[in-house]
Specification:
- This protein is an all-alpha fold.
- Helices cover 72% and strands 0% of the residues.
- The chain contains 14 helices and no strands.
- It is globular.
Length: 368
């Protein structure tokens, strides 16, 4: 008697379970972020085809320019470093419920703070100049971040407007300094004097521009993750951001949390400015920051306000900037394409989360 194979049909319960799992994956932030990035790359390739460039060849050039060699990878990480730092600064404030749009201004003040000991302290201090410059940059950024926090607590000022306007003050303060007090007498360029050799961040990959600031940024990402998820302070910070009224009923001092979070946020943004001065420019230059603070805010949101998620997104932003330079030099494609490629995921995610908001669903469900 021959045996007949039995093909079992999936039950309705199994199909319902698969449908529920697929729905959960499609609703997850990780899937939405990947969808946004994939869509932005696809649209970028379509734009390239309209410019008369073979999209696949352009994609190969872009990937080669971002990861194809040791120098390309180093450039990607150099572009990543200040963006990751400003992203960490933004997410610390956002986790506390404080919408800090002032990372750009805090970065500018951090650069000013770093240039002072690096230029005016005696060069005989040697390598003591480097930690002094970084700490001074962090201090300047922290104090700049403290101002909107105090204005909000003292006078009820809107932090979005205050932090946004303080960005302009920071940018014009740098402009004033490099055209006046910090400009060398013999120079006509809008920049300060070169920093002392002992204040420069060391190159960690020979033959490239990759400096020790990258290691500092990654260490701060780990530190922020540890503080948020493994300390009582981090629990209070997240609780205040999720539900300030409930946190207040639990006896938490919200004013202290706002002030401390903005001191940390501004300090990290200040380190970003110090890293740019001590590791890339080696002097304070007018317009040295191409909206790094706003890039950091976008990275923090795209990374779902998670430190390690921000690291991944920051690498994407670094690769886009590095790859676009390769497109510009090889295929004469405008560098503005990088801004388009970096902006598209933000637009997609804004649309997706706007749709979810209208349906009454949480914007950032991964915010624990």
């Amino acid at each position: 008697m021959s045996s007949v194979p039995i093909h079992r049909q999936p039950s309705l319960a199994t199909l319902a379970g698969l449908r529920k799992t697929a729905g959960a994956i499609m609703e997850s932030n990780a899937f939405l972020v990947l969808l946004a990035f994939g869509s932005s790359i696809a649209i970028g390739l379509v734009v390239l085809s309209f410019l008369g460039v073979d999209p696949l060849h352009a994609l190969a050039v872009m990937l080669d320019g971002a990861f194809g060699s040791r120098r390309a990878l180093a450039d990607t990480l150099v572009f990543m470093t200040p963006r990751l730092l400003t992203a960490l600064a933004a997410l610390i404030a956002l986790r506390c419920g404080f919408f800090n749009l002032g990372a750009e201004g805090q970065l500018q003040l951090g650069a000013i703070g770093a240039i002072l000991p690096a230029t005016f302290l005696p060069p005989t201090l040697g390598y003591l100049l480097l930690p002094a410059s970084i700490l001074c940059g962090a201090l300047f950024g922290a104090l700049w971040g403290l101002i909107p926090a105090l204005l909000k607590l003292w006078r009820g000022a809107n932090e979005i407007i205050v932090t946004l306007m303080m960005n302009f003050i920071g940018v014009y303060l740098v402009k004033y300094l490099v055209q006046g007090p910090l400009q060398p007498a013999e120079s006509n360029f809008n920049m300060s004097a070169k920093i002392a050799d002992g204040a420069a961040l060391p190159i960690i990959l020979t033959g490239t521009r990759l400096h020790g600031g990258m290691l500092l940024a990654l260490a701060l990402a780990v530190a922020v993750w540890f503080v948020l998820y493994h300390t009582p302070y981090g629990i209070r910070l997240r609780a205040a951001g999720l539900n300030p009224r409930a946190a207040r009923l639990q006896g938490m001092q919200l004013a202290r949390l706002v002030i401390s979070s903005m001191l940390i946020s501004g300090g990290i943004a200040g380190v970003a400015g110090a890293v740019e001065v001590l590791g890339v420019q080696y002097r304070l230059i007018e317009g040295f920051s191409s909206n790094l603070g706003f890039d950091g805010l976008a990275i923090a949101l795209l990374g779902s306000l998670e430190p390690f998620g921000s690291v991944i997104v920051a690498v994407y932003f670094g690769a886009i900037n590095s790859g676009t330079l390769a497109l510009q030099s090889t295929l004469s494609i405008p560098a503005a394409l990088a801004q388009i490629m970096a902006s598209l995921p933000i637009i997609f995610l804004a649309c997706i989360h706007g749709y979810r908001f209208l349906k009454g669903r949480p914007l950032w469900s991964s915010t624990r």
